[in-house]
Description:
The structure is a homodimer.
Chain A: E1 9-15, E2 19-25, E3 31-38, H1 45-63, E4 70-77, E5 81-82, E6 87-91, E7 96-100, H2 101-109, E8 113-117, H3 118-129, E9 137-143, E10 147-153, E11 156-157, H4 188-192, H5 194-206, H6 211-217, H7 226-234, H8 238-262, E12 266-269, H9 272-276, H10 278-291, E13 302-305, H11 311-331
Parallel strand pairs in A: 1-4, 4-8, 9-12, 12-13
Antiparallel strand pairs in A: 1-2, 2-3, 5-6, 6-7, 9-10, 10-11
Amino acid sequence: MPEDKEKDYWVGFDLGGTKMLAAVFDAKFKQLGSERKKTKGHLGVEAGLERMIGTIRSALEEADIDDTQLLGIGVGCPGPLDLARGVILEAPNLGWENAPVKKTLEKEFGCPTVIANDVDTGVFGEYRFGAGKNERCVLGIFPGTGVGGGCVYEGRIFRGKTMSCMEIGHMQLLADGPRSGTGQAGSLEAVASRLAIAGQAAQAAFRGQAPYLREQVGTDISKIRSGVLAAAIENGDRVIKQIIVDAANHIGIALAGAIHLLAPDVVVLGGGLVEAMPELIVETVNKSVRKHLLPSFLDTFEVVAAELADDATIKGAAAWAEVEFRETDSKS
Amino acid sequence: MPEDKEKDYWVGFDLGGTKMLAAVFDAKFKQLGSERKKTKGHLGVEAGLERMIGTIRSALEEADIDDTQLLGIGVGCPGPLDLARGVILEAPNLGWENAPVKKTLEKEFGCPTVIANDVDTGVFGEYRFGAGKNERCVLGIFPGTGVGGGCVYEGRIFRGKTMSCMEIGHMQLLADGPRSGTGQAGSLEAVASRLAIAGQAAQAAFRGQAPYLREQVGTDISKIRSGVLAAAIENGDRVIKQIIVDAANHIGIALAGAIHLLAPDVVVLGGGLVEAMPELIVETVNKSVRKHLLPSFLDTFEVVAAELADDATIKGAAAWAEVEFRETDSKS
């Protein structure tokens, strides 16, 4: 490597339930290269970590950056996590347990690596670059395969001691409601995740109440994704709209609980479902949450749609690595 | 005043639903004098502020400290509050609105005054001097006339921008449950505050199911306080025990939601009810909360009883004034 090569680059990584993304950024967070692969969680932890390395290698190659030019890697992961050791403790939607992400990537790329909850890094991205720019307290809710939450409080990700937090999807709404993937009865995730919505939409399609959806994708929930749900609503499947409204109402109830605790200034709603129908979901959540709040909270926050889409997590993860490792540098 | 008089004293104040307390502390938080009066919220804001001034005057007199020796006053108030302006926006249990506490006390005593939610100051007291000493994240829950919550995160009270937060009593548990004093249907406060418990206990007494309680205080809920509830349980009123257990179970459900968001290291339960029957309530809440958590959260926290009783809020309020005003000094 020529000695004059600049060493001021960051990698952001987004390990999602269905896809993984890596991107390389310069010091001003301009994106220089990226790569996307399917996650294939069912292949297990070891194969998954290999896929992560390969994805980062491809992004570095596209950006024409060597390992030695990296200042750090930030990884947004599904939780719960052991943040100190950089291990994914359990990721039910991937079927993973005890995945040593930090150790694996530090060994491979020779630079410091920080992991954080993927929603936390997404909210941090929206806080630094998007819909919650520089606000004192930003709460993010991302309905996806599950329903994730994250909070940036006074410039930093709000965190647990050895694990993530803001697990809004696991707040209980219904005493004896349906179970989510983690076995919690009546949790928000069990009634308002994209999976839960797809499960209800498939039943409507099966019963013949959602003819457009049935014609497009049948009754297989793995084919009932955000885009086709939005298209079904536009094409007159009114029961699908009601399913989305019900889910958004439930998000509003859980959000009211979170607002009573955290008093955020901005609530950012993101993820594929929200991107596919931002107005319907943002408006419905906004109405629902206000039915369940103390009056004095009503004028203290805004509910807005995320602005960065898939970029939020990778860009936020890279920016969070900068917060962690620039600070460590300045202390030493 | 002689010129050599030391100026290193703090006043802590606890404005409760039924009583108000003031205490004077030296720099090491040794208590030098105190006073207690009934709050008499029904007399209104102006009379209430006069009573506060009188209570502080009496405590100063007992401590033999002049106004000019005070570095600051910290006041724990029922919320929601406008922290920046130091105003109680609404205190439903007092019937107060827009009470200018900070301005009134600063004018009277000539020293800086900070207000905070009374539970926040209580939790700060437990964090500095009691059951959550120096822990990274302490969540407090104080079932009283309502059900208050507070959080000390990395050494500071977690706060909203212009108001308090951690209003765990207003989290919704039951979609169409009973209403609390603030009109929230199915909130924790509506099913687990001391008032809600007293309401149920009075019904049991009326129906003849709680003979000891009925004999002691009849069916007037203003006489059904924590001590007599504990005595009723000891004297065989099993239905009273069930009412307390039900309330503690509901606290556990709301607490699970809060733990999923905040991932605290210690959960401190305090207030009169808990003091009257700490084992029953702590154990029941501890069992209940663990039924509603993701497995990875189970070993991350302890549930403990508060240690400082009535001292928590006054001592915490004084210590919080020190954090606020010593820091301001060092910055200027």
